[in-house]
Amino acid sequence: MHLLVIWCLPIFLVSTSNHLDAQSKDPIIFGMSTALTGPTRSLGENMRAGVLAAFEEVNRKGGIEGAPLELICLDDGYEPALTIPNMMKLIHEDKVMAIIGNVGTPTSVTAIPLAQKYKTLFYGAFTGAGALRRNGGVMPYVINYRASYAEETAAMVKALIKNKLARVDEVAFFTQRDAYGDDGFLGGLRALIEQGLEDNNVIHARYERNTLAVEGALADFLTEEKPPKAIIMVGAYAPCAAFVRLAKKHGLDALFLNVSFVGANALAKKLGEEGDGVVITQVVPHIDSDLPTVKAYKQALSSWNEAYEPSFVSLEGYISARILIESMERYKGDRYKRRYYIKALESLGKFDLGLGAPLNLDSQDHQASHMVWPTYIKDSKVQPLNWQGLLGLNP
Does 143 lie in the same domain as 198? Predict the structure, then answer.
């Protein structure tokens, strides 16, 4: 796979802006290693779009005390082997101040040791993996915006049991065969045990990362004497869509529930009319909500690129970037030193970004949000859902 480098320049650098003049400060450069090619490229493209929309929004107002924000994006195709050279280039050659918005668990697991070794902030990754949270503890150079996969799957399990849609022994898992899939499975298994599962004997079928080889996993479910009533899916949008289509074709009568990493908009598009009733948990509000940050996001995205459609993934990128910008606007110090960014984010404490609930970051808490919003697909669109509404989705 070839190396794709995209230097994401703010629009005002190539236009006539009234906000910045020739005396503007040097740009503050951030880095991102993400999937811009391959079957998960929609996730990488949308995270990049959200971050850029937030950066341009502040740049149009003069940057951070006259310093524009820039982003260098390197393609890793969602393959950990390509993340390593990307991280080395960003840190040593491009001399970025921090890494923001990397996509994926296996790629993040590879990137974090390098960020720690070279004392560079690894922030706002698009993953809810426990490897970035150390069982709720703090990792010195890792700061997260989003709720964890364990919190997402726990919300699913609680809703299934509370609404009597499935017993604990009627919930199964379809996951990607890597750190991402394993993390989601283990979080869901812990939630089932907390709800009364007495052993670890649950159906768990897997597929290989960056493939659509889901037939074997489906066969595992179809050969069970008692097929599951609910399947929690921890995968990417293309293979998850392929699995749902095949499962419905072969009469697997179950409720399908996906974690946020799947990319709800991409999944809905892939499934088309076969997507009705598929559930996706989100770690951001619905993109059609009236919350102040969601409205600001839509305006910023349209200003950056009016042809770009809003999505849950780009909203997450925008929110992560806005939190970073908020910390930079509040915290004084040398913004051209990497250590500044960890101190700035930790200084936020409890703050309100307009998401309907307060966020928090400090030296003892490196995860800003613990909120989970349920959604589902209807008529090829991702609609808001309350957990009681699962009853109407029961196959």
Answer: no
CA dihedral 111, 116, 119, 125 (to 10 degrees): 50
Same domain, 140 and 184: no
Distance CA 64, CA 204 (A): 48
Per residue of the chain (395 residues), what is the pLDDT tens digit?
444 455 554 333 333 233 444 456 899 999 999 999 998 999 999 999 999 999 999 999 999 999 999 999 999 999 999 999 999 999 999 999 999 999 999 999 999 999 999 999 999 999 999 999 976 678 999 999 999 999 999 999 999 999 999 999 999 999 999 989 998 999 999 999 999 998 878 999 999 999 999 999 999 999 998 899 999 999 999 999 999 999 999 999 899 999 999 999 999 999 999 999 999 999 999 999 999 999 999 999 999 999 999 999 999 999 999 999 999 999 999 999 999 999 999 999 999 999 998 999 999 999 999 999 999 999 999 999 999 888 777 66
Cα(142)–Cα(124) distance, integer angstroms: 8
Assigned domain for 40 exists: yes
Task: Indicate whether 269 and 304 sit together in one domain.
Answer: no
Whether 369 is covered by a domain: the verdict is no
Distance in angstroms (rounded) separating the CA atoms of residues 105 and 38: 16
| DSSP category for residue 55 | H
In a domain, 85, yes or no: yes
Residue 276 is assigned to a structural domain of this protein = yes
**Do 175 and 141 share a structural domain?**
no
In terms of residue numbers, what domain contains 219?
A: 150-282+374-393
Is the sign of the CA dihedral 91, 95, 99, 103 positive or negative?
negative
The total number of structural domains in the chain stands at: 2
